[in-house]
Amino acid sequence: MKKRLLTAFVVGSILPLTAQKKVEYVEYDLPNGMHVILHEEHATPIVAVSVMYHVGSKNENPSRTGFAHFFEHLLFEGSANIKRGEYSELVEKNGGMLNANTSQDRTYYYELLPSNQLELGLWLESERLLHAKVDQTGVETQREVVKEEKRQRVDNQPYGTFMENMFVRAYNSHPYNWVPIGSMEHLNAAQEIDYVNFYRTFYVPSNAVLSIAGDINIAETKKWIEKYFSTIPKGEAINLYRDFENLSANDFSDKYGVEKSAFSATDFLNPKDAKAKALIAKYSAMPVVVPRPKPIMEPINGVVRDTIFDNIQLPGVFIGYKFPKESDKDFAALEMLNAVVSGSTSSRMNKNIVEKKEQAVAAFSFAFNMEDPGLGIVAAIASAETKLEDLEASLDAEIKAIQNELISVEEFEKIRNQFENQIVTSNSSVAGIAENLAQNYMYFGSTALTNEQMQRYMSVTREDIQRVAKQYLTANNRIILYYLPKAN
Amino acid sequence: MKQIITLVALVAITGVYGQLDRSVRPNPAQAPTININDSEVFKTSNGITVVLSENHKLPRVSFDLVMGASPIAEGPKAGVNSIMGQLVLSGTSNRTKDVLDAEVDYMGATLNADGSSLYLSCLTKHLDKALGIMQDVVLNTTFPESEFERIKKQAESGLLSAKASPDEMAANAEKRANFAGHPYGDVMNEASLAAITREDVLENFKATFTPQGAYLVIVGDITKDQAKALAEKYFGSWKGKSLYKVDLGGGKATKGNRVIFVNKPGAVQSVISISLPVDVKSGDKNQLPLTVLSEILGGGSFGSRLMQNLREDKAYTYGCRSDLQITRDGSWMSASGSFRNEVTDSAIVQILYEFARIQEGYVTDEELSLTKASMAGGFARSLESPQTIARFALNIIRNNLAADYYKNYLKRLDAIDKETVLLMAQQYLASGYNIVVVGNESVLDKIKQFDADGVIEKMDAFGNPVVEMKTADISADQLLEKYILAVTQTTSLKAATKKMKKIKSVTKEMELTAQQIPAALKMTDVFQAPNSDASQIEMQGMVLQRQYFDGTNGGSTSMQEGKKPLSPEALAAKKKSIGLFPEMNYKTSGMTYELKGIENQNGTDFYVLFTTDGDKQQFDYFNTKTFLKAKSVIIQTQDGETSEQAISFGDYKDVNGLLFAHSMNLMMGEMGLSGKIVKLEVNGKVDPKTFVE
Which ipTM value was assigned to this complex? Predict the structure, then answer.
């Protein structure tokens, strides 16, 4: 065994590192503050059009949790120019597909279209940003749909509640205290004013990244972006425009002291009327303030233990540790640490706990990649007849081993090879490229990071891995959840 | 300076687009051409068909070795192929599992296996070494005993977690309902898993993994010359059995709707799946129009009928979709989703409504063009993955498609009209549906109405029929004691034992009649203390079958099969079943037994005692008032086949102080025999030759 590994090591070390395929892109800001990233490649005649909004569940009002995700559903309901149900139909009947998802930190919408439909994608996304329209039927329907989504993905799923149970115990003042799916009671309580305020605060160009990847012509794409997105008003002027569309003539003039008729629906930004012109200038100069929680590192005080009874057959143990934010310099080392203990057949937890001791059917560890300090999870689902106490002790033993002893050179090489493989393989689809570019810009403030992954991971040392194991996987500050079968 | 430029730009932009009419929807640019690169196809010297799709975008290569054998029926060993697949990578004669895992992981490569394929993917620079490992697995995998035991244990835990997953439970019930008696209807369960031996696994591997009829699909950063050389070098010398190929009929349609309920206590949603087998196989000309139909009904798009009706209109669900699975060995269609308990019946109504509506009228032109456009888009998007190109080439070969099938795909898709779609619906969706509901029992009353005969079938998590049972009020040992006291007509075990000591032999002669048999059969059963027995069946003086056991050895002779000694399993079972009333000795003979509960059949309560012994499982039914045995159901597994026998006992009469059933009815498969005792002699003379060959 030892000999074989050594041979492999020698072979591995002779081979040069395969280079990460560079993703070429251009990026720029529109005058209204929207950030644009474009990647051109022609292998397949398709294009990914995406908009990432810097709003997630952590921006929610604590008495309106689940709102960001609910809003994502509502923003498929249409606009002044798109009827209810038509948004997805337009994409699908033109050979595309679309979807969206919401995390604690951002909301992401995308269409994957035949490349000759790029302009359609831009128009659709600009409509969503400028003046989405939601009627009461839409609100009621989507509220029920979201409730079903929660039942299906969380409540009716074995161990499905572990995330909310973990986060609620790990955070007090930081809004990671709740998870994106949120509270159904809060959604029931939502009023029209909540929707209006949420849209006006977070769905503004300066809070969005437009990322496009695929079979495009950059110059032509830029022209269309100017057409559909540069015409979206800047700063608070976008909300002025929304009021122009939604308020009655009286309400509008009461609010702004300028008659609605002073503005033009077809050329809103260039009114003839001097007062209207001045109002637009004033509101354009007024930035929309996006409230963000302070990215504080809230330590877990001591060991928090709890038992959750769930509709499961096999008990499980979930252990949560405070991890740094994704952009922290230690994050790459923590991800490599996770790869040492789990994720491949020969990883330590699989070899020792699943295969040798047969205490678990699955054992895993992973980090939530989050904008603010997040969580790392170490967990296992017990095999029949294994006591959770024993399983917990075995998980702890693996953590201690990595803290007490530097990982071997062979094991380190293995992890590096795995990351090399992953990084080379990443960015193989245009949909993935569009999202990676946007996320790196939004979380790290550096689109270029998309091409610096190899360096980021390959500069981690064995000592780094041991150090982060000691620093973050602290036995005295963590959350330990036991999942036990509910008695019927 | 910079500021000025920005200002100028701003002016320019507003100048050009200031008057944007947002209600005008953009027109598409000229449609891009879709190119499908050709794949190379060639053979290795031992007959493996190699399909190569070159793609040098990333420095990676994958090798997918796919077996050509038909799925093998597993019956009582359901799950053997899946267990085999999990064990293929558990060690070779050159590498222990630990070494194998370490070497693969060291390269950051992926090596996966299932019951009919092996898949390798790695960076180009590791290819030679990685193929060496893959070859070692193909030629020298060993299925070590210890790993076999470990995977079996893990599978036991897996079965437990399947009981927590409503989707898995629904899928199991769906398979059993649509594919009874077909390999697709084999669902691993506790009993079938327990029955699987390492030898079964080895045999399954040999029958499945052979170069005969196999395909090697190579994709990625490799040239044709390299691919040819490597395929030959690593797999050209592999030898194996001849290809197992059978024509499997497909699923069986049900008459009228069947409602199948799987209980999941505490479920907050019902998982509903409505399905039926469809008589189409891969490569059929109706495959594409049927797929269009399925997409309109409930394909991936938000615009599908099921999605619009059940999610966007009624908000019963997060998603309701239909799924059409077309394979070479059997096909089916299903519509499914998760629904809150309260709307379980309403959801079924709406799904059935959509199934009916699509058979009753043309789909609209909008629906048809939307679906075709969406499928065309999906086709184009799929081309981004080089694996797709190779899959197309493989399908052309395996499904006997025209060489230009995929090049003309969009043209053929475009030609499908609404008349064809209606025809598809009427041809394939007309028969009865299997309505599977996994949920909590509160929904039972609501779903009865959908069953053609008003009786809900209940299945367990693995699709086995569930019989309602109450908890027994006594223990298994108490039941056995009551039974023994009843047949011996005594009041204590001590007295019963004393009485039985006096029984030296029992000879029963029975007359058996059956509709299918012209003359009556004569069956003679002989017992001799302590533990010998024999039986023979005659027809008009001719011995059809004879079985004998002398307490140590035994065997059988029959007209069909000739002479056969008892198998080691049967012998071991005989030795656990000692005496005229073996139940007297269960405690000491090593028999495994369990009282399942009280089952009501036709108004009478019975205790159900379950015994299991090697290949034999038996359910005995005891009347809860008289404690006499009323019925035995014996499930026997031999050479991979399961047979079920049911014997009912009646007309108990006293002979020499013991109660014997004087009438019995036998159900063996489809054949029913009714029997009457014509002679019963206790302690008569017995020829010792009766118990030997």
Answer: 0.83
